[in-house]
Design brief:
The protein is mainly β. The chain contains no helices and eleven strands. The strands form two sheets. Strands 2, 4, 5, 6, 9, 10 and 11 form a seven-stranded mixed sheet that branches. A four-stranded antiparallel sheet has the order 1-3-8-7, with no helix packed on it. The model has no long low-confidence stretch (mean pLDDT 96).
Length: 116
């Protein structure tokens, strides 16, 4: 399984961005998916998760501003980010679980910078 994240960039506070994550390879193995983010010197933290059936979970810091979604037929995961704040600046990673064994697949990360 390979995950390819894209859509990062620079935006002013209050702006919006949409991240995408496309899966390829043995995609039938993928179960729950999620977005994480990391800033230098800090641990990677959960942003949002979505099960294969569409149930979602969000970090408190992004509730009401970010929306995670997926289209299993297109093998794609999205993160719609609105009302962005400087503290949302980070490298964002997508991940996916393996339904057959305890393994997590990670995308390469995409940088989001929120600054005026």
């Amino acid at each position: 399984v390979q995950l390819q994240a894209s859509g990062g960039g620079s935006v002013q506070p209050g702006g919006s961005l949409r991240l995408s994550c496309t899966a390829s390879g043995s995609i039938y193995r993928i179960t729950d998916m999620g977005w994480y983010r990391q800033v230098p010197g800090k641990e990677r933290e959960l942003v949002a998760q979505i099960t294969i059936s569409g149930k979602t979970n969000y970090a408190d810091s992004v509730k009401g501003r970010f929306t995670i979604s997926r289209d299993n037929s297109q093998n794609t995961l999205w993160l719609q980010m609105s009302s962005l704040k400087p503290e949302d600046t980070a490298v964002y990673y997508c991940n996916g679980g393996d339904r057959y064994r305890p393994r997590t697949y990670w995308g390469q990360g995409t940088l989001v910078t929120v600054s005026s």
